[in-house]
Amino acid sequence: MVRVKRGVQSQKRKKNILKQAKGFKWTRSSCFRAAKQALMKAWSYAYRDRKNRKRERRQLWQIRINAVCKENNISYNKFIAGLKKNNIELDRKVLADLANNNPEIFNEILAKVK
Q1: Which of 18, 35, 83, 91 is deepest in the core (most CB within 10 A)?
Q2: In this predicted model, what pLDDT tens digit does every residue of 16-62 receive, in sequence order?
Q3: DSSP labels for 56-93?
């Protein structure tokens, strides 16, 4: 059998891991084993927080819509129910943006819902 030397591949793999761990504190950025463990942890946090970001954004939109609804003496749940009853298919992201940037358009929507 032919002898296979694998130094090039392992060095390439280590170099890639250390490159991804650049900017980490202490040994995590320079030692292969610590960098690998830190990256595994970082990737799991990144995966989890991509899900959490969606949850937090929706909460923020609901809070913004609710604040404008309270100013106009209507509750958030009655506003959403009124949207569905009148077949106004705008999602919370768009509604929050309208409430924040174009209050006159949002007030027209509120008038239709009331």
Answers
A1: 35
A2: 999 999 999 999 999 999 999 999 999 999 999 999 999 999 999 99
A3: HHHHHHHHHHHHHHHHTT--HHHHHHHHHHTT----HH
**Euclidean distance between CA atoms 101 and 88, whole angstroms:** 19
Give the DSSP letter of residue 2.
-
Straight-line distance from the first to the last Cα atom of the chain, in angstroms, rounded to the nearest whole number = 83
Q: Is residue 14 domain-resident?
A: yes
Q: What is the pLDDT of residue 101?
A: 93
CA dist., res. 57 & res. 59, Å (int): 5
Decide: helix, strand or coil at residue 47.
Answer: helix
pLDDT value for 114: 83
* CATH code: domain of residue 80: 1.10.1900.20
Spatial CA neighbour of 99 closest among 54, 59, 62, 58: 62
Residue 1 clears pLDDT 90, i.e. is over it: no
